[in-house]
């Protein structure tokens, strides 16, 4: 199924790119920007904006701050994951703390999943 997107979210996605978190910037500038398989950041998919998206691997990477671990945050993320999963997309989630404390491990996990999804 082709990806749908809400055009009205594009200006907001641009703002999110300009005001990325420290962890998003680190993952982007120190790993994903030069990764051999192209990633996009703050990509609009359906009615959502995902942190990072790889079209070839059909992979979304989300970096989660504290708001994702509240009751409402957990329920929202579950619903969002179900909708995005209906497009055949896989979602990898990392906490901001994981990016801060285990950056190499996060990068290796992303690399492993991309290669597995592309069967490289």
Give a written overview of the molecule:
The protein has 120 residues and is of the alpha+beta class. It has a single domain (7-118), classed as VSR Endonuclease (Endonuclease, Chain A). It is built from five helices and four strands, in the order H-H-E-E-E-H-E-H-H. The protein has a four-stranded mixed β-sheet with strand order 1-2-3-4, sandwiched between helices. The protein is globular and about 35 Å long.
Mean pLDDT: 91
| Succession of helices and strands | HHEEEHEHH
Report the strand count. Answer: 4
Q: At the third CATH level, what is the topology name? A: Endonuclease, Chain A
CATH superfamily: VSR Endonuclease
The CATH first-level class comes to Alpha Beta
Number of domains: 1
Name the poorly predicted regions.
none
Helix content: 40-55%
Radius of gyration: 14 Å
What global shape is seen?
globular
How many strands, which pairing sense, and closed or not: the largest β-sheet? 4 strands, mixed
Q: What is the correct CATH architecture?
A: 3-Layer(aba) Sandwich
């Amino acid at each position: 199924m082709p990806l749908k997107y809400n055009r009205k979210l594009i200006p907001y996605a641009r703002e999110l790119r300009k005001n990325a978190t420290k962890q998003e910037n680190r993952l982007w500038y120190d790993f994903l920007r030069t990764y051999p398989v192209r990633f996009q950041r703050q990509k609009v998919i359906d009615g959502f904006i995902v942190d990072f998206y790889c079209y070839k691997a059909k992979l979304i990477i989300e970096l989660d701050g504290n708001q994702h671990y509240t009751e409402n945050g957990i329920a929202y993320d579950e619903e969002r994951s179900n909708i995005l999963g209906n497009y055949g997309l896989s979602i990898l989630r990392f906490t901001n703390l994981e990016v801060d404390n285990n950056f190499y491990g996060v990068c290796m996990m992303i690399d492993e999943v991309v290669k597995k999804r592309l069967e490289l």
